[in-house]
Amino acid sequence: MPKRTDIKKILIIGSGPVTVGQGCEFDYACVQACRALREEGFVTVVVNSTPATLSTDPGVADRVYIEPLTVDSLSRIIEQERPDALLVNLGGQTALNLGLFLEREGVLAKFGCALIGLDADAIARAEDRKVFKDAMKSAGVRTPKSAIAGSIEEGIRAIKHANFPAIVKPAYATGGAGAATAYNMEEFVEMLAAALETSPIRQAAVEESVLDWKEIELEIVRDSADNTVIVTTIENIDPVGVHTGDSTAVAPAQTLTRSQLSELAEIARKAVRSVGVVGCANVEFGIDPKTGEIVVIELNPRFTRTSAFASKATGFAVARASALVAVGLTLDEIANEATGKPCLLQEPAMDYCAVRMCRFTFEKFPQAQTALGTSMKSVGDAIAIGRNFREALQKGIRSLEMGRHGLGSDGGDPGEAERTDADTIRERLVTPSADRLFAIRYAIEAGMTTAEISELSRIDGWFVEGIRELVEFETKLVGRSLVGVPSEALREAKRLGYSDIQLAHLLETEEEQVRVRRKVLGIKAGFCAVDSSAGEFEAIRPYFYSSYDSSGDAEPVSNPKRVIVLGGGPSRIGQGMEFDYCCASAALALREEGYEAVIINCNPGAVSTDPSISDRLYLEPLTLENVLAIVEREKPMGVIAQFGGHTSFDLGGALKKAGVSILDAPERKRDRASQRKLVGELARKLDLKQPENDTAILAIDVIDKADKLGYPLLVRATRVVGSTTWRIAYDEEDLRAFLDTRIEISSEHPLLMERFLEDAIKVGVDAISDGERALVCGVMEHIEQAGVHSGDSACSLPPYSLPDATVDEIKRQTRLLAKEIGVRGLINIHYAVKGADLYLLDVSPQASRTIGFVSKATGVSWAKVAAKVLVGKSLAAQGMTEEVTAKHVSVKEAVFPFVRFAGVDVVLGPEMKSTGEVMGVAADFPSAYAKSQLAIDYSLPREGAAFISVCDRDKRAVVSVARQLVALGFRIMSTRGTAKLLQASGIPVEQVRKVHEGRPNIVDRIVNGDVHLVINTPFGRETRSDGYHIRTAAVQHGVSNITTMAAAQASVAAIEAIIRGNLEVIALQDFDGGLA
Amino acid sequence: MKPLFLMLEDGAVFEGTSVDSDVADCEGLLSFDTSTAGFERVVTDPANMGKIIVFPSPLTGGAGIDRKDAESSGPKAAGAIVGRCAAHLCGGLAAYLGSPRLALGHGFDTRAIMRHLRRNGEMKATLTAKEVCERTLSRRMDAIGCPDYEPENRPLPCRRAKAGAAVLDLGASKSFFRALAALKVRDGLNPNEADLVIVSDAPYYTVEDSSVISQVTGWFGRKPVLGFGHGAAIVARACGARVSWLQVGHHGTSVPVRAVSDGRCRTTEQNHNYTVSPNGGLASLFNDINDGACEGFVCSDARAAGVHFVPDEQWFGAVLASIGVEYKDA
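Output (structure tokens, whole complex):
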């Protein structure tokens, strides 16, 4: 079927900020779709609210809007752009839901815009639990028995006909949000209430539990002529009951027979046909391991995180196929970019095993439950490919960068007691968790049989046997020396995926020695192409994985203009898509300059791991061993390490030590202490102010040193588990409590202490230098005061309250610092402004997470400029001689995952907790801030009641905020202290009870929906206090919750802007001065 | 486990180990199958007689061996080469699948073998416990014969048949008969009573067997004839068409094919080494979307047709119509 000629302009909705359940994979999907559609001659319009996305780069789409993803702003964009079609299946659940609401509210019909790929009926058939069940039933596809509930009463009626445990699933939700398993009536009622609240249509399914069944997913693409292609089957190692996004997954499925695979494929075809999917879909199956009975648990009629994994694991570009079939092309008319064959109908064949490991960040949320369940908790994932499951699994574990270098025997295993205690092992096997695979290892070591382990964990015995093979193999190594191990055993160890670090641990030697020994014995990795055909066809767009189980494919032809860009690894809090945006931009820039760009990364959802971004891609762990092997093969002129966050930055240091040419900073002081010392020296030399600070390498010195500095103190330490942690200590008691947590204080991991500047304004600056000239890319004034992690704070570019003289001084100091450090490329500096004083807080010679935001705010892709600088093209040669002055205001706001982690305190502090960011652009600060708030799920209210309760420090400032709110028509509620103050200032206040003052109290009022805005600032480090309960209730019930006075002031201004109702939508291309 | 060498006609050698310690050397056409599961199905398919098959999938037998999936009473391929063999297959496969025994080697760099086949084409090879000299290799290659196939699979009963056929069984697998039953074709009929004669799939060398070709030619003018798999190449040859050897055969479960009549597409399961040139009286019915090869044809004069795959009901009906056989509604 030929492509449609009745449509010319297509609007693509992105997924918005990264949250748990929606990650960078949708940017990857949108980029692929935009490229494919533009190649076919369509005009593309992209809307997204998050700035660090390649799909919102003006070069990728024809028209770009960074606007809140709401019906209101989408309606305005549609009215303005008049697209012929709307594509909603590549922007996650957010886009799908928006598409449906725009259709239902008549916006699409009004402006002659049609949903393509997936129409409203198809969305409803897949997402509405009842319609989906009916559609499956009529197609003869078995689904778990279930009933639909629109209220608690309906749910109770439904559950009477089912047995516990039962699954409660909200309709139209993403990442398993609000889904839970109820084991009794009490839990059920609670979970149903939460599920109804999560569902945008207040509907939930109450389902028969197929808990512990085997879980399989099929990625399928269907076109309008009913052709289908199964991209791959994916087997989740964890059984049903653990969200598929949290489960370790393997592609292709390993434990199914050909007949079972054929049956699943047939059911998947029927299911997508009956829903009416045109595009990609992901079908989740449960298979009873005892009887082989199959049920369809879910069908996602859109691009998902699994689609990204399936794409990268097979070389089949799912998003591209999905976009092209949406415009009428059929799979036989779309060329396969991996093999060069003329059609996409041939199912990819795999001669390897791909494993997806999930990245969790429980260390950021100490109060959160670490057990895994039906609601997704991971924040990112890594893909690893090997020629066998064990090789892929061990590579996957080290790809996560959690301090483990394989499945144990790496120096990171717990003590003897924990590994051998039968009760502990049993408990760890029964409870799904992030490290259950390690528990299997310990269980095997403790002598448990495969059947026992499988019975307890419900993990297929095949996987347990795979791990057993590793444990048994290690007996061949233990007790031997490196030279005493037969070369065949060493070779086998590498085939089984052991890293040099693991081998060094097992053979009691050093990693470097293992590498040298391997070289002597000629044991080196082969690099094989992911070619979609198991070697049958030559890959024309190859990307590679390493394996010791194959001699590998042909070596690349040498090229003196080849540069390797190190990626950022799996997304996590603190290092997300903002860095991947830089890596991908850098690769594109290098290619523009005629260089061959090679990317190394292991994040399956990342844009940088789209093979079309680079000349060659390696899906490999970002470890010294793996990267060195690639460097040896590629022989690049240099490696760029400044774009992938700490992962690449730290790796750059190790590579430099190993003699690899690093193109960024000439002098790389890696560890924090020397970094801090460097900043101190710079400050002294350049006569810049710094908060008083000190470091301690002995725990006993800490209190003395703290006393000398004076409280409050900002302290930073390394956790025993390897990550770093921050805390503000208001007094000695606070500091002692911090020292009692699992932190390490040593010469290698010193405790950093700095006088905390209360009520100071924090300012972040991104700058660029080519060694000769330094330019400020952007100065960002943080809205939250110092003490809140810069990644968690909203910020404004240009600064909205700082005097020009201060901004000029900040720019002057930045240029001085950049020049003094001698950095080439990007540099990020933080300052604090307190009164008339400017303090230098931190200097980091690498791309920061704000580069994407600054690029969008200024209309310059700074990562591209930096990459070109690094290969020798000066700023002047790039025409970058003047600072870019934006004529509009851009505000960045952080997005938090609190709703996923019940019980976690939502107060912001020096420890970063946000997963993503949104951006608001407008002519003035209040409008830009308002847009940034609208872009977050819990947007600002326009009316109703505002609850205000602030600490003493903020009491003076809160009066004017309350007064403004009253003027805007809000009612004010307060607890006794604040109420008294406000009443004394002539502001009408309704006094409400604190939590411990009896009921109904403020939490009851929030739960009952009486409160629409919460302004609650904490004092010091309170935990299970009133404030904690209030903030938690607000988050759980979707009430806007503000925890700093600065944010409260900005929010009030924003509410005023929203009420005024003149938040116009503007394409980046149309800004005065141009953002394009 | 002993070392095992795969020596190719062109001199290339790959090394692995034998799974069964006492398996004798074997020779055959080195071919491949890229499926991730279904080892038992492939090695027991009579159409794979005389072949040594490479499985590039990383692990063979991971999901176990399902006797139900076997295509005949035991292994028919001469040998199989895998990357890694699931532990339960090692040592037990021959006993499990019965006689004749299958030479099974593992620990081979199957990707390197696939790359060699892709560049140099499928070719004869030997799987041997000892490396042999060039002369011996050449002698062995020359001596590769054409093992006879004794039909052993039986047609399945079919209710409410839409057509009746006599099947010339040259190497029909169990799933071939299952497919015919699903297409509502009653087979096992006396040719004189049947609506058509069906030439089943067959080992690759049967395409060169003149006695078989004469047998098929003998039906022309008496009954419509339809060939499947290598049976299609035999029918084409009987029609006098040019049939040529594919450098790399079509062996897979999702080979994309387009119908010449209406442009509709299907993914098909194929396992053949020959392609037919539609010339003279032959018209192409289906083409391979990847390489344009003819995957189905009709010779109206002879009322004969051939398809390299088993089509679905709709396409089967169209093929039958092209040779004048009514595909009756049940």
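The domain at 3-142 of chain B is CATH 3.50.30.20 (Glucose Oxidase; domain 1).
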